[in-house]
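Suppose you are handed a protein chain with no further information: no name, no annotation, nothing but its sequence. What can you learn? This example shows the usual starting point.
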Amino acid sequence: MEKDDSKICILIVPYTKKVKKLLIPKWLPKLSVAILSILLISASIYIGKVHSLKIESQEYIARADSLEKEGKLKDEKLSQLESQNQVLQAKSDEVENKLNEIDSLQQEVEKLTGAKTPSRGGNISRDMKIGSTCPEEEMEIACEILDNKKLEMENYVADVEKRLDYLETIPDLMPTSGRLTSKFGNRVDPFTRGIRSHSGIDLANSHGTSIKAAGKGRVIFSGFKNSLGNLVIIDHYNRYKTVYAHNSELLVKVGEWVEKGDIITKMGSTGRSTGPHLHFEIHKNNIPIDPYDVLK
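A reasonable first move is to predict its three-dimensional structure. Written in structure tokens, the prediction is:
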């Protein structure tokens, strides 16, 4: 019998049955091995790709979670900044309203005293440029602005106090009530009936009427003096002096400091007088002037 080299013979020998013979082509095992190798290699490549995709997917998910957390943190920070800006804006508006109130008050004080200040009011929001910097820097700017305003106000208050103190020395308060009987300047002398210069004004009222200091100052004379009778002279130390004559009673002594409006004498008719009245003079630089040029 002719031998066939193209096939492989496989004998199957069971314990009890007849031996069986199986013939298979020689190329079949090689093909099976090749196919199996291909399948193993494909499976390995597939598993590798799946593992790589899984890792990439996990990394992507982790990155997405990180970005989401960062986004939430940024949103929270933005919300905090917006809240801080709102609070800061509210405070700056409140401060600006206060400065506007101070501005109005300063204008009134300036009208009364003539005191001037380098600047008034101000726009806190404009100066701070809200939103252009971080809230911490804005707060520092606001504090600096307020410190400058505080210093300005302290200087202004000091200036106003000086001005008010000076105004207290101006003898512009009417010293007593009564009827004007003689003006400043030339007049008919009640005793000689001739024309004579009158260096003050005469205010007539009942005996004992209170007479007040026309301004703050120091008493430099208090006593009797010839035709002027009981006399008080006050030096206001601002180029002004005031004279109060014909009094019935003197209530201050030499050297005393008096405030504007203090009662210093009582009206009388001492000295060369025709009846109870106050002879009142204002001297500027030691020269008598018309009291009505100063009196309010």
